[in-house]
Structures
1.
Amino acid sequence: MRIYVPGDMAAISAGADAVARAISREISVRGLDLSVIRNGSRGMFWLEPLVEVETPRGRIAYGPVSSDAVPGLFEAGFLEGKPHALCLGATDEIDWLKRQERLTFARCGITDPLSISDYIQHGGYRGLANALERTREGIVEEVAQSGLRGRGGAGFPTGIKWRTVLNAIADRKYIVCNADEGDSGTYADRMIMEGDPFVLIEGMTIAGLAVDATSGYIYCRSEYPHAFRIMRRAIDAAYETGYLGASVAGSGKRFDLDVRLGAGAYICGEETSLLESLEGKRGQIRYKPPLPAIEGLFGKPTVMNNVISLATVPIVLDKGAEFYRDFGMGRSRGTLTIQLAGNIRHGGLVEKAFGMTLRQAIYDFGGGTASGRPLRAVQVGGPLGAYFPESLLDTPLDYEAFAALRGLVGHGGIVVFDDTVDLAKQARFAMEFCAIESCGKCTPCRIGSTRGVEVIDRIIANEDRNKNLEVLDDLCELLLDGSLCALGGLTPYPVLSALKYFPEDFHGNAG
Amino acid sequence: MSVSNTWDADLAATRIRELQHLPGALLPILHALQEEFGYVDESAVPVVAEALNISHAEVHGVITFYHDFRHKPPGRHILQVCRAESCQAMGCDKLIQHMEDRLGVKIGNTTEDEAFTFLPVYCLGNCALSPAAMLDGRPYGRLSPEIADFLINDARRRD
């Protein structure tokens, strides 16, 4: 029998390691024959550490469990799934999970992340098996037909990217996974790497088969040491079982994979900076064109996708393009992995078809603010996303709907603020963050961001107010049009949206 | 974590040799050195440059570009607190101020007794449990001033 105690970093931050130790102690004191599995997280972080026990009635959940509560749980008979104040019932029946459509996260929190047999038992490597029966063009076509778009933020159609690399002629090609998940409010990539790493390995392997690349890299940010360690162990396990290396799953086709660590530069989430960094250089962005699909890593054609995009490929190949495309709305097909963050009561991961509104995400899943105070602003899509007021909460989470409001769905992070937020301070931070993280290559971003901080300071201090507002507007236009990449190019979004929807916060001393 | 061995040129050269064959070896090498010694000593620059056949300036440029790489030994404990939006929404600014008072040093610095290097970080990916922090690689969520005090005292006691 198995007991599950998440080994996910967020669960550990809530005390999961101590709980796992307490459970192991009880097991040995009581002389029981039980194994403790460190699974991924189900994504209900307010319930972490969420302990599950396997019973004839299925898995029964208890949470949030503290190490002090463990002896009591054993006394109450939690191994048989008996009632206890912390009992949440059958995990599968928890409403919060039942209302989701988990495709990419189908296994996360359910399996032992480092057990390849667990992975296979739960549908893993079926996508690869199908891919191995197809031509390269056939794989690319399936991905294109699914409507999958880049989940890193830009939403570029994955199939088109792959086709470009497939058609490029070169002696070597690469698959690079962008696991530099730097946006505040996002943690889906981390959860996949810690909770279901083989799905990412499988997705990258399929990408390699599709475009004829034999080598891949995962660029994992250094702020994720847990994800990095689990990813490394999963790669080792995949080599040992023949799912990576000279003959993937006995197919005679080679695919090698390595995971590399970033070094604390937000800009390396930008694809060309990431490539520079992987090559061992400063993470300065490259001019485009040439696109990485033509001249990418070490100058070779490169598929560069986000963790979630690549981790979604196996289910597309397993269940078919149509199955995946049937979820979603308009041109946003499939599911979006929403991450509820900030001042939120029930923070966590919600995977659902595109089209749910912000309000539904924040209230129906998130339960409103953690502080219990009224919600005042929401930032979607990371530090470059717009701040929306309450009145825009009925906007559907869809790439086009957000773009029309000068906002971003981005990587799906939703950061909620209550009425204590000062949007002038947030706007200033957006500029400050851009100044800290600018790679320095283009002038609008490098200098404009510092000037932006100064101008916002003057506006708040009520110095030449109208003139400075004009300067800020002008500066934002310059950043939008003149920056080389999205860092400088999108920093105006949070700034201008804060000004537009929350002008009263910029009055500073004038009141 | 609490690494901070004294710099050893021979050991550094060994670490460099172990990794120099990798494509794009510079970051892996710098990470390995920092993991071993807690920082990257200036004296490593010519050795790494020689091993990878690149200029001193290129190595220096990379070390200084990335926030992670330290140029001098850190404190015995590395305390990182998230300063990004999600944690701001949960009052990280006040928390950081409290910790600055407690540690007697502004964020971004090492305490005088070299017990703590206190650093800002822009997102630990623990945004459903903001405010978030990491002490010597161990993550903490929903961090309150009281828990922060406890962690600081506890780390000091263990020294």
2.
Amino acid sequence: MSGRIALAWMLPLAAALVFGVALSATLGYLDVSIPDVFAILFAKLHGQTMPAGIDPVAATVVADVRMPRILAAVLVGGLLGVSGAVFQAILLNPLADSYTLGISTGAAFGASLVIVLQIFGLVLPPGVTIPIFAFGGGAGTLAVVLFLAAGDRRLSSTSLILAGVIVAAILSAAIGFLKFLADEQVGLIVFWLMGSLAGASWANILLLAPAALAGTLVAVLYSRDLNIMATGDRAATSLGVNTVRLRLVLLAVATLMTALAVSVSGIIGFVGLIVPHMLRHLVGPDNRALIPLSFFIGGLLLLIADTLTRAVLPVEVPIGVLTALLGGPFFCFLFKKRQRDGATAF
Amino acid sequence: MAPPLSERNTENLWSLTGVHFGYNGTPVLRDVSLKLRAGQCTGILGPNGSGKTTLLDLLAGLQTPQAGTIEFLGRPLATWPKKQLARLLALVPQDFMVRFGFSVREVVEMGLHPHLHRFATPSEADRALIDRALAATGIAALADRPVTRLSGGEKQRVAVARALAQQPTVLLLDEATSNLDIHHSLELLHLIRDRFERQAMQVVAVMHDLNLAAFFCDHLIFLKEGQVVCQGPTEEVLTPATIGTVYGVEAEVTANAFTNCRQVSFRLPAAP
């Protein structure tokens, strides 16, 4: 049944995503028509020369500037959506996401550290250093959180979230100190902490696309086990689910997905929290539908948000600020609505 | 489907030898040696903290003993693959909590998990099985409701329906009737008793209520402070002496013509 729900939603969503990507590519300082966008991409993909009648400047803008950024928006949104759905299912907490576990803060700390080191004269190759440190920060944080929570052999969600909150609090203070050290150049850190897709390149896409595909596949593979986890550890184990291994594998996968996304875009909040949450209202809690749909909705939402800030708004607002400003109030609305409906809020 | 045990009724389901178990150095079970036979509904009784639930967890393979051995169907329990064990054993936990708003039908369908390949969807026969489990537990009308909105008793019946959908050889009940009123308790125990008698589904139940245990179980195991005090057929071991030793109350056990089974009444011992 869930398979049909997922399919019924997936096809229109995939179509909407393709259309959204094409539409977004037409928008910006330079106007390009949708057929031209397709012609440019078709020619580019097949290594042909641009057909006559297409402005070579437009071709370069679409193929080398807009497309990487647009695809990065879709992939980062999808990665955050899927990892959010996985975190919520594993921690049995609809409020969980990469923040609750401290992973985003860890990635932010890694990136801030590089920026400060560079200010103090450390010479590092620019393009790759921040992603690598952000990734290391996120993965390192997960390792510490798992270590702290491991005293509890069953790796319960309460001890994981508590460990995450503790580590995140320490890291936030450390980031504050790094900002203080950065002094006048604090803007570099702040800009990164607020998230932006402006710097996305084709190299980023080659990194994100396989990660998104592989991560989503693993999550879908374990989605039935994840459903059963919602009925408690004892019950799940007695149904043949290896709960400890499932937690470890999926936590690792979701962390890698988040850390990769953060390493390209900086911190973009609320997508991982809101997308699975909203979908649960629409299609129910079955992870077999929820996880693949989270990819599409996450990608679509971030594409819309990035297109807004890139081409529609008069000034480019950092995308992390935009998603928080749009997502936050929406979340408050959901929260109040659920209380009114008489359900226990979360 | 699990192999029926009906033709080998006297076989040992479990055989425990010198089992020790504790949490963080505090012993919960001490030197437990037991044989649990097929062909009888076995009840595990004892005061709070006597290790009943822990014993059930050990039988289900959810915990491993720190010393001693547990064999299930003649083979060390630890060597059974978890998935295979899940096809033979179903557990109805004491407090069945579901964290997201899955529908009742979705939760009961999870019982098929150990029988289905990772990507398989339930067949027509599977769906009929789910319908029967829903009907048998009296929750067919709730099938499309989110399980988070059910009462404690309704949730308990969902847990039993899921265990039935699991088609186990042995059903393990952990105080499965503790949230139910007397009508639903009797109904549920009758249903399980019926599966036991007609389909040879074996039952091991942790029970709290001595009178329900007297009605439901053929064989009783009494635990106190992590040790087996006595065990045997219900009519032999359910005596004032046993109840006095295990619970520290004065008891009177009578054969009740109305219920057609033994009934227990108790009072605190008079102060010396």
